[in-house]
Write a structure and sequence with these properties.
Helices cover 75% and strands 1% of the residues. It is mainly α.
Length: 454
Amino acid sequence: MADRSDALPGKDAAALTPARVASRVIPANILWSFVLVTTLFSLWGFANDITNPMVAAFKNILLISNFQSSLVQFAFYGGYCVMAIPAALFIKRFSYKSGILVGLSLYAAGCLMFIPSGWMMAFWAFLLSYFVMTCGLSFLETSANPYVLAMGPEDTATRRLNFAQSFNPMGSLLGMLTARNFILAKLDPTDEASRRVLQGTVPEKFTAMSQHDLNVIIGPYLVLGLVVLVALVVFAIARLPRIKGEDDNQLNLGATLKRLLANRKYLEGVVAQAFYVGAQIMCWTFIIQYAENELGLPKTQGQFYNMIAMVIFVSSRFICTFLLKFFSPGGLLMSLAIGGFGLVAGTIFLKGMVGLYCLVGVSACMSLMFPTIYGIALKGLGDDAKLGAAGLIMAIGGGCLMPPMQGAIMDMNAFNLGFTTLSSTRASFVLPLICFVVIAIYGFRTSKVHRHTY
């Protein structure tokens, strides 16, 4: 049976149900717990966005192709995909708090694995470290997202999750700053062509340069691992409230899957989430390559534009959360997806700084998408939301499959379309363009077809 030591004193599970708290977005009796769980959103945001620039960094340090370097994202988001279902089953058997503790443990372990990975100078070891780290993040997201949804009234669940998710990009922005100032700025500035010459003529100097750069990468991940260990201790001693239905630790896997597979709104949400995460990771991962290949800007300046995109994302998240008071989630989602489509089209067909500005502006349209798709898909699922959440976290696997595909396109020659010629970098953004079409269709269907079920 699950341990009840984390129940709030004098409060029973019913205290957290809609019948007892009116329609407040964050009920007063769980405010501290909500704040504590919300810190997790910043923690995994930091991990996501300190990692995105590493695709460009590893490419230059280890002299690998765009496709090979994008395997960083394959390993990173692959952990989400592989561990989501096991995490959901674990949480169902034990508790949300137990899932958080396991997640923080794996997260810290993955960060600390960077030390031997750097010593070995082995790309596969770094990929394994990312995979272990995100197995932990999968536990955290599978725990925290549905926990926040269930912390109060169901009619404010999507707004509550959007508010909690608003702190995710704050962690992301800190991760970007760390990547720019403590990694990219400290890497040896020798370009790829010169490194290749060194590799062939003075291999020991090339090895020393690579080891220096890998040591630079290790440092921030080591500090991150120590911070996560502190968070693990805090959550271990914290008294988090149990929610309605959490004492039911029977798996009932077959019946739950049958209900989920019969729910079209949920299934379409999983598909939309996969395409959204793919679009987000592609736009943010390759903004550095776009700035470098199309405009000749250094990596640190490309990362600066990535940070501007994140500031826009953060601001837009709060604005869109407010707009949800006046517009339906599905309708707003569809409108933003159409805007994202238009801006990515500008990234593809408009040259120079205008194309880069379009790519930066896409973040304003993406800000609402993850928590809104998540909230729409899970609303009304009751205790099935624990396993349902796993499907939506598993959909983050879209972020592991699509970046390597985009990297492979970038490794190709330019594309002659007859009326214009597209560089392979600009042409590769056709993938996020397709993603926004899928998201727009889901927004339309939730506002028109499924409007009575959310």
